Amino acid sequence: MKRNLAYVLLLMLATVASCSFTNKTFENDDKDKLLLDLITYVLEKGHYEPKVLNDDFSVHVFEDFIDVIDPTKRYFVASDIAEFEKYKYQIDDEIKNTDITFFNIVYERLMQRMGDAKDIYKEVLETPFDYSENESISIKYDEEPFAADREELKERWRKQLKYATLGTYDSKISHMENKEIESTDEHDHNAHSLEEAEEESRKSTETTLDEFFDFVDDLERKDWFVQYINTIVDEFDPHTFYFAPEEKEKFDTSMSGKFEGIGAKLQKKSEGAKIVEIISGGPVWRDQRLEVGDEIIKVGQNGEEPINIIGMRLDDAIKLIKGAQGTIVDLTVRKVDGSLDVVSLTRDVVELEESYAKSANIIKGQEKFGIINLPKFYVDFNDYSERNAATDVAKEVERLKEEGMEGLILDLRDNGGGSLKTVVEMAGLFIKDGPIVQVQSKDKGKDVYDDKDERIQWDGPLVILVNELSASASEILAAAMQDYKRAIVIGSKQTFGKGTVQNVIPLNNMLRSNEHGDLGAIKITTQKFYRINGGSTQLEGVKSDIVVPDRYSYIDLGERDQSNPLGWDKITPADYKAWDGYIDYEKTIADSKKRMASSQQIKLIEENAKWLKAEQDETEISLNFEVYKEEKDKDKEQSEYFKRLTDYDSKLTFQSLGYEEELFTKDSVLREKRNRWHKFLAKDVYVEEAVNVLEDLKMNNIKQGKLASVKN
């Protein structure tokens, strides 16, 4: 991977050195044009399948940008679109000439129309809604035309606001009927009539919209320009993406699972920044003086004069609060009880534990199995020797072995992927040696990524759980273990289907000098990966050995349902030999399918999946209260019916490992998280079937006289 990235960057930088990318080419204040020029250059030179910038490309950018900024068609009117359309076939030429006229015109009109929208929703919400009328609203906005004029737009807003208010109105009526009136927001008081309930519902909707437009007002022109840039970038493929400087930092944090700060998640409020979650193990959690609901109103740096953050953009407030490990931040806080306090905290590295691998023992009678849940293939890009998914899974495998596991479940459900290096190392834990994945770069032959370490950390029974949201690195691991016939894959008919590799390229590296500040980075698709059998996972994903339905079975979630995905293809297979262990694939799979066919829980899951699909396809919503109530009652009845899914009990026992039990004495939050996870696992029919498969594999192992052993 590194040598391919080095090749791409070397090519780009060498070319840049011979070009005129200096600030002399651009006006000092024209950062947007510089950004557009750099990004299109990188895409042309580095993308795996660069697009031709022509009229077709221009049309797609035009339509997609309008859809991104006005998806419900409640800002622009038809005359605006007609005015914009003169640029419909010119955007490709503008991109080539670093011209942003189209963006400027659309942005300026959007700001005007959003100002109009504030007046419109205020006007609409002055008039009571008549819920006895037989009218409906279509929420299939892509099929709706833009409003012809302000009056038609106002009518569209009226229906949308009536729809938004309907649920609140229903809630208040129910409270009245039950004579148990509760306050749900600052505008609520006890409603004693239908008129009062309707009025309070409108006020609640108005408050929500006020908060939304307050958030929009915080957005700057550069935030909207990032949307435009990403509309262009998205035409290349769904995983190529431009990161503004702040977003690049968030991406790095999500991949490493840690950040430097106080360990609290914040939400903007008009009174300041409200604490909505405290991260276990962080400075706020350790200090114990702050709690969820407290509002930060001023921020100071180690005794310096504090800065008032009321009305400040949340991102700007967070920049003041975050900081390097070991530095001190002084927070002036309005407590939940209304009192004011100043809390000084020493910033620290905060680890987001729920991003990391975790494991548990599974007890079934006299047998003991292990399960490892891996949310993502995380890595610290700045220091691979720091915590990463491969080393963490290796540790959990070793701990489970020490506690006597007889078979292992690796749970990759909802795992969207991550680092390619970590998945290659992780696969090597389960085979002696050999190829794991094949990678092909633009205009180059294939590279084969091998496990060259002959040690096997676990050679016993192995099951991998996947679903429709298992993607990228998850698919590489599942595919490799499937091709080697090393593991049984249980889950959805097929996984997500992301068979591409991305590299993150800092744009500052593309310039000799730069007076515009941090330009951010672009995540660009530079390679495709292939199974060792030669097939791509792109679009097709990995097909499970044992297919079981889940709630996503009929919902469009995969790569094939994204915009502009790359196509499926195949290359020559790598040289590998199938696992020579104990697995009897055909019999194990056949026995599992018999169990699944007779499972009432599986049948109920399938029924639930079909119902969810039907609900998703319902796009015409009645605004008549009686019809709404009738539909709601039907939905509630169905929801109650499907609640039986959570009543399921696999009769399996889940236990934390010894090292975690010791941590629980100091970390009650971690204990509660693990207890909840274990309760969830006990209701999980897929985990139950995975244990059944492990038992079958274990019996095959015994019959063949091959007890699982470990080579140290």
Automatic annotation (TrEMBL):
Domain of life: Bacteria
CC per GO annotation: outer membrane-bounded periplasmic space
Region of interest (Disordered), residue spans: 181-205
GO molecular function: endopeptidase activity; serine-type peptidase activity
Record carries keyword Protease: yes
Residues of the PDZ domain: 248-336
Keywords for this protein: Hydrolase, Protease, Serine protease, Signal
Leader sequence segment: 1-20
Example GO BP: signal transduction
Family statement drawn from the similarity comment of this UniProt entry: Belongs to the peptidase S41A family.
Protein name (database record): Carboxyl-terminal processing protease
Source organism (scientific name): Maribacter stanieri
